[in-house]
Amino acid sequence: MAPGQRVSSFNARRVRADIPQLTRRINGRPITYLDSGASSLQTHSVIDAMSRYYELRHANVHRGVYQTANEATDAYEGSRAAVARFINAPGEESEVVFTKNTTESFNLLAKVWGATNLGAGDVVLITQMEHHANIVPWFQLREATGVEVRFIPVGDDYRLDLTNLDELLRDVKLLSITGMSNVLGTKNRVHDLAAIAHSVGALVAVDGAQMVGHGPVDVTALDIDFLAFSGHKMLGPTGIGVLWTRESVLDTMGPFMGGGGMIADVTLDGFTPAKGVARFEAGTPPIAEAVGLHAAVRYLEGLGMDHVAAHERYLTEDALRRLDLTFDGRVRVIGPLDVIDRGGVISLDVEGVHPHDVAQVLDQFGVCVRPGHHCAKPLMRRFNLAATARASFGPYSNTADTTVLLEALEHALKMFG
Amino acid sequence: MAPGQRVSSFNARRVRADIPQLTRRINGRPITYLDSGASSLQTHSVIDAMSRYYELRHANVHRGVYQTANEATDAYEGSRAAVARFINAPGEESEVVFTKNTTESFNLLAKVWGATNLGAGDVVLITQMEHHANIVPWFQLREATGVEVRFIPVGDDYRLDLTNLDELLRDVKLLSITGMSNVLGTKNRVHDLAAIAHSVGALVAVDGAQMVGHGPVDVTALDIDFLAFSGHKMLGPTGIGVLWTRESVLDTMGPFMGGGGMIADVTLDGFTPAKGVARFEAGTPPIAEAVGLHAAVRYLEGLGMDHVAAHERYLTEDALRRLDLTFDGRVRVIGPLDVIDRGGVISLDVEGVHPHDVAQVLDQFGVCVRPGHHCAKPLMRRFNLAATARASFGPYSNTADTTVLLEALEHALKMFG
Amino acid sequence: MSNLEDLYREIILDHYRSPRNRGELASPPAHRVEGFNPLCGDEVTVYLDVNDGVLTDIKLTGHGCSISQSSSSLMSTAVKGKPLEDVRATIEAFKELMTAHETTTDEEERDATNLRTFGELAALAGVVKFPVRIKCATLAWNTLQQGLQELAS
Amino acid sequence: MSNLEDLYREIILDHYRSPRNRGELASPPAHRVEGFNPLCGDEVTVYLDVNDGVLTDIKLTGHGCSISQSSSSLMSTAVKGKPLEDVRATIEAFKELMTAHETTTDEEERDATNLRTFGELAALAGVVKFPVRIKCATLAWNTLQQGLQELAS
Ligand SMILES: Cc1ncc(COP(=O)(O)O)c(C=O)c1O
Ligand SMILES: Cc1ncc(COP(=O)(O)O)c(C=O)c1O
């Protein structure tokens, strides 16, 4: 293929032009945004969809009769349907609950499904590479019900150590694992693990925060039971998240928060919860946020999720190779070094330079990376690290981002060397 | 004063020009938005603040070192400080918890403060005019802990019937009342009731959803302990709400949802919650929404909340008078007929026309009113109503809105007469 | 106001003001079934007398908007005295009418077709243009359908 | 890169690379106090020997970024051997330095003043321009302050 020839409908340069923040300059340099793992940037189409919503058709949803109330309701429910299609939910929109973020999705799962279905003697099996969002709610449930929280260990190869899986699975009622580690970049084999968990009668929940928006996610093909993710990590807005659940499971779940919209009836004596997803959406929902999320889904579908995945895989492979070539071990990658079952999150340990200092020096080059424990303290302890400096890619990232990253890292090494 | 002379910095025409949705036409007529009780419209400044945030400085908050992460954090925390000033929180920003809406605020109150402090033998005293957001969480708490939920009745004058208040207050640990009914427009005497509740050792929570944004609200002067309200009812965006609590109370409260941001530490064995408001804000918070809410607060402060209150009082008085003059009893107001302790929410019972049909006919005139039970079913039952058609004002409303409302109501009466 | 008159046709207003077959039947022997729309609070109770595969009598009570009330009234006149098979077919056809999204562009032609198939019931065809009101129009029909299912099992 | 050099002055990097007074003191008799920054994971442990109102010895362990580590090292050299009154005054002055938001516009003049007051410690003055790093710079100081309070009570 001739250089510059387009291989697919995916054109990184065009994607960059769709992201207003990428025109920003930081400390005299163009921004090099490498913090998509924490939150992605938004496209013009996402931002404009929300503005137009507020400018033209904002109204509270449900029960309205007038035109803008209908339009707002259609927009909100239309987003739910689009999200359902995007993840190929078998029961379509009746399986998509809007929350405020991945964290709320896991709390809903633990505090409603967990509180009803799990008790002393039951086990929730998670992994040592989970984000706090998929740890703390289970610890809270343990306090309330005595359920056991068990961890699948992580090996020195930065992957799940499945040696004792059979034993670990004893009494497990729920396997709850991340699709991809937000520290290591490790992707877990969700489909295979789900099949094993199902074979012992456990349900399977997946933390999709780092999956959805970075590649195709098909809950039917994965054959899982719950999927949690956030709008703001997939080009969408803050303030909205998703909990997808099989309709057959959802129908057995009691209410979560109490209030308007989630009831069928309220008297002085008690209340009857509503049917369907409404039962979990008390109060005025994130309407404009759903509109923004719909625009993000539409944009990602336009790119093609296969193309996004291929693009990020290419960037990751390129970055891992150049980090190795350039620094010859002085910059250590905390995560797998190959791109099999690995995504575009690259945690760095820079010789002699604390991650905070790395991030500070990089900021001077306009490079945005995140230092810290990345809300995965058990994993950090596992590798004896207080923090890493993490660079992570989105659909709009390119190899020039990596070039600036390398230049800035060299400066950091020189400065502290 | 000469006609057209400005009495204050408040100029209704100028406010209207700041609201893009008011330029919209519905069914060939300019929109007549009378559903601010359900959700308010947004100003250009609010919409633009969020767009600019996404275009220029979106990043995840906290723990970031690079410039946009700092800017996003400053924007988020700056909003918290602005909200604290707006309601005159004695402990400033350390008392303002961002939630997703009023409903979540009440759930936090019930499921955290309530679950720790209330048990069998204790009483939560609410009123018969509460929104489901201030009823259902207490019913849920009753199921969990056996607390008693007691109602202050509503009299035929559409006001709280305080005849037996002393008796009702027996064993009360929390008085939780709405500042203003979203159905009747009745404003409760929060300060006086709070003083009485405090005198028997109870804390006081106030549903500010219909107060904040319609007039001055000063939690220090009111001498209350909790205040809940929503951004989307005060010119702000969807997806954000507030729970204000006294610092001395907040410090005694355990965590709510578990996840990132709300912890001090997490190990394989357990977690230590963070200190301060962070403890209640698990996961990525509504950042852009906080930016929008800040812009709304700034806008309202620019108008002057005294002026907003006076303006809405004037509109309400005018509407009540003209409804009476025009329809001579064929359109009944479900709520107080005077404007003492009464806000700009007017529920209508139109002779021979069901509220849904009222709303449908009004839609043809571009008039947006809400039919239904308004998430206050116990109150509706009290007055033997399945639904009302509710018109409600915001700072941008004017007497011309009422004129169109009357014209459309006449048409409805004729059509069904 | 052409839209509005599409919804509130004269026949609908007439059935709303003077509902047919309003009232109760002693149950038993009649079968009684309740329908409820939690979103808007509309309620309908249907009483059915079925003998030898024929819906010999039907009565309705309830409250709600003009669309839900006139639709129950229109329904009662359409199904009363009919063999159950016909009743079921009418229910299906009506629900179809309530989901048909503008397939024919020629409104007059469609109106004529509807009138042939549905008689007075065709007056409700305008409801499809007001999607939020469809659940009002179908409430009584779903309730009747449920009643027939209960009787069959 | 002027900004960055404002933060990472040569003295800071030097104290980061070769921290002074690093290590432990037997406790007791020394007083031991721990400081922790939950946001970034920086940790510091301060050991204090106080005799007759004088901070006769101080040692530190811990880990964290260059700012928190060099600040502890610089602190130790500034307070070691000083009467507690002077130590407390230095703590106050340093915390003041860390909150002073550009009052003097003349940077050179300010730098000169700082140098007179703070000696080597003045190297940390640049941190105020990086608000998120202030908590790194003050961690050891807050820990020392807490230790002195514990000793006093
Ligand atoms: C008095 C009152 N309380 C609570 C609420 C609930 O607010 P939200 O839906 O934003 O949670 C509303 C709004 O519907 C209200 O009017
Ligand atoms: C793997 C993973 N899970 C959960 C979360 C939590 O997402 P949110 O903060 O949107 O709730 C994140 C993001 O920080 C994540 O990376």
H and E order of chain C: HHEEEHHHH
Name of the CATH architecture of chain C: Alpha-Beta Complex
> Order of strands in the sheet with the most strands of chain C?
1-2-3
Counting helices, strands and paired strands, the structural category of chain A is alpha/beta
Oligomeric organization of the protein chains: heterotetramer
Q: How many strands appear in the DSSP assignment of chain A?
A: 17
Largest interface, with counts of residues having CB < 8 Å to the other chain, equals: A-B, 92 and 92 residues
Tell me the distance between the termini of chain C.
Answer: 47 Å
CATH superfamily of the largest domain in chain A: Type I PLP-dependent aspartate aminotransferase-like (Major domain)
Report on the architecture of this protein.
The complex is a heterotetramer, with two copies of chain A (417 residues) and two copies of chain C (153 residues). Chain A has 417 residues and is an alpha/beta fold. Chain A folds into two domains: 12-37 and 304-416, Aspartate Aminotransferase, domain 1 (Alpha-Beta Complex), CATH 3.90.1150.10; 47-302, 3-Layer(aba) Sandwich (Aspartate Aminotransferase, domain 2), CATH 3.40.640. Chain A is built from 14 helices and 17 strands. Chain A has helices at residues 12-17, 44-57, 67-86, 102-117, 136-145, 165-168, 190-199, 219-222, 247-250, 287-303, 305-327, 355-364, 377-382, 399-416, and strands at residues 25-26, 29-30, 32-33, 96-99, 123-127, 148-152, 172-178, 203-207, 226-230, 241-245, 263-266, 271-273, 331-333, 345-350, 367-368, 370-372, 388-392. In chain A, strands 4-10-9-8-7-5-6 form a seven-stranded mixed β-sheet, with helices on both faces. Chain A has a four-stranded antiparallel β-sheet with strand order 13-14-17-16, covered by helices on one side. Chain A has a two-stranded antiparallel sheet with strand order 1-2. The radius of gyration of chain A is 22 Å and the shape is globular. Chain A starts with 11 loop residues before the first helix and ends with a helix. By secondary structure, chain C is α+β, with helices and mostly antiparallel strands. In chain C, helix 2 crosses helix 3 (66-79) and helix 4 (84-97) packs antiparallel against helix 6 (131-152). The A-C interface holds A 62-65, 70, 73, 263-265, 274 and C 38-40, 131-133. The structure holds pyridoxal-5'-phosphate (2 copies). One pyridoxal-5'-phosphate (PLP) sits between chains A (101-103, 131, 133, 178, 182, 207, 209-210, 230, 241, 375) and B (260, 283-284).
